[in-house]
Amino acid sequence: MKKTLLYFLAALPMFLLTNSVFAQTVLAPGDIVVIQLQGDDPDTFAFVTFVDIAAGTGIYFTDCGVDGTTSQFRSPNCTEGARKYTAPAGGLDAGDIIRYEGGGTDFTTYSDTRITGNFLLSTGGDQVVVFQDATNPAGGTDAANTPTFLYILSSASTLFVGDPADSNQTSLPSSLTSPQHALALGNGTGADDELDNVIYNGTYDFSGFATTAEAIAAAKVAFQNSANYYSVNITDATHNTAETNMPTELNLTTLSNDEFLSNSFAVYPNPSNGNITIRNSGIALQNITITDLSGRTISSKDMNGVTSNVDLSLKLTTGIYLMKLSSNDASTTKKLIIK
Fold this sequence. Notes:
Layout: H1 2-21, E1 32-38, E2 44-49, E3 58-62, E4 66-67, E5 72-73, E6 82-86, E7 97-100, E8 107-110, E9 127-133, E10 147-154, E11 182-184, E12 197-200, H2 212-224, E13 229-232, H3 237-244, H4 257-264, E14 265-268, E15 275-280, E16 285-292, E17 297-306, E18 310-313, E19 319-326, E20 331-338
Parallel strand pairs: 10-11
Antiparallel strand pairs: 1-2, 1-12, 2-7, 3-6, 3-9, 4-5, 6-8, 9-10, 12-13, 14-15, 15-18, 16-17, 16-19, 19-20
């Protein structure tokens, strides 16, 4: 018994250490999106996460460009530097927005055998390349040689026309596709058709969906759309307003199933003579039940999962009725007035 206890106590620190090493989040391309790049002083960038990120997870941000031939950082060594972000205690929730403004305890200066130097965004166009250490989600000492590329925002051109000899350009690694995992928002298609500053200028409100997954899917579409970004060579009132309006998190508030269904169906005309249309926004409608105000069922009709609009001709006497519209997992009730 004593030997078993001693063995357990000896093994416990190793278990705890191993557990903490693998507790961080392994990210995939598109899990986070860079939504601001500011080359004018002060150098800033911002990103939003679409997944929960555990405390201690390491994420790297660099203005070092990627070589399109090798799908690795420029070689010989990139002398532009990097910042490592470490998710704080409590981690991040999907929808959180994090801003880098030159400091903060969660951002630290990073360098290794490939990336050396200072992180300075150029006023001649530049990029923010996001990556994680493929060997350790908490981050290691040579992450730039084993990168999992996550996202790129470039202001050097509207194309990824990276020249390994030009530190202000980047190509797209083979693991990323645009616009899902990268945006190039410069001033033209040529190399160095650049703008200094890029910022998201669309909505941050993705509330009203039935699930958080649907809200996040809508947010991804918005952040992948280049039309939702404002790019300018010198920060101006529009840029500054967009910066001021940037929240600390997306609004991903979801409706209950009943609320969602209520918003998904409309009945018109109402009042009517009994000839009505049920407008359906794409929900699989399974059943329609009509009752009078005393709760007596007047009619019931199976709809077999129809997702399009439904026309009904109801033979009802003048009065007020309740129409229950049911999907597989929820229902909503509409008041129906027959004149």
